[in-house]
């Protein structure tokens, strides 16, 4: 049997809530409590407002900073939240890569500059920027 800590926490929360309330408990309410917000709370509202990754990462279009210079949040085609992480370069700029599972084309960008749809393993443009980033 595989131990799954997240499932154990949800089960513990449901059991604790059921025992303390003396009755049945809505499992959704317990998992919402574990997440730290209600389903109608600000976290739910902020993730609902996220743009599709395919709209955020378009070839030739500038990628702009969101709340954090090291993370860009968007939605994949299934509606799941994706966090595209950026690395800080030695010159203070931020370099990011995007994978196709996000719904956007695979590629790379420097924050504040245009998105390049490319296979980063073989793209000479990415190679040059990566070397400059770490120089």
Your description of this structure?
With 135 residues, this protein is α+β, with helices and mostly antiparallel strands. The protein has helices at 5-21, 27-35, 42-48, 53-56, 124-133; strands at residues 71-75, 81-88, 94-98, 107-110, 116-117. It has a five-stranded antiparallel β-sheet with strand order 1-2-3-4-5. The chain starts with a helix and ends with a helix. Mean pLDDT is 75; it is low at 1-45.
Query: Can you give the helix content as a percent range?
Result: 25-40%
Mean pLDDT: 75
Largest sheet: 5 strands, antiparallel
Number of domain modules: 2
Concise account of the structure shown:
The chain has helices spanning 5-21, 27-35, 42-48, 53-56, 124-133, and strands at residues 71-75, 81-88, 94-98, 107-110, 116-117. By secondary structure, the chain is α+β, with helices and mostly antiparallel strands. Residues 1-45 have low confidence and may be disordered.
List its salient traits.
single chain, 135 residues, alpha+beta, 2 domains, five-stranded antiparallel β-sheet, 5 strands, disordered N terminus
Topology summary:
Layout: H1 5-21, H2 27-35, H3 42-48, H4 53-56, E1 71-75, E2 81-88, E3 94-98, E4 107-110, E5 116-117, H5 124-133
Antiparallel strand pairs: 1-2, 2-3, 3-4, 4-5
């Amino acid at each position: 049997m595989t131990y799954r800590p997240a499932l154990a926490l949800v089960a513990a929360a449901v059991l604790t809530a059921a025992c303390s309330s003396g009755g049945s408990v809505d499992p959704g309410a317990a998992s919402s409590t574990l997440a730290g917000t209600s389903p109608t709370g600000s976290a739910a509202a902020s993730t609902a407002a996220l743009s599709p990754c395919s709209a955020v990462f378009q070839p030739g279009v500038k990628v702009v900073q969101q709340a954090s210079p090291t993370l860009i949040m968007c939605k994949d085609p299934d509606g799941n939240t994706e966090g595209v992480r950026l690395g800080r370069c030695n010159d203070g700029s931020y370099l990011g890569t995007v994978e196709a599972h996000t719904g956007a084309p695979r590629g790379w960008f420097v924050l504040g500059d245009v998105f390049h749809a490319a296979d980063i393993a073989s793209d000479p443009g990415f190679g040059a920027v990566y070397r400059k980033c770490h120089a």
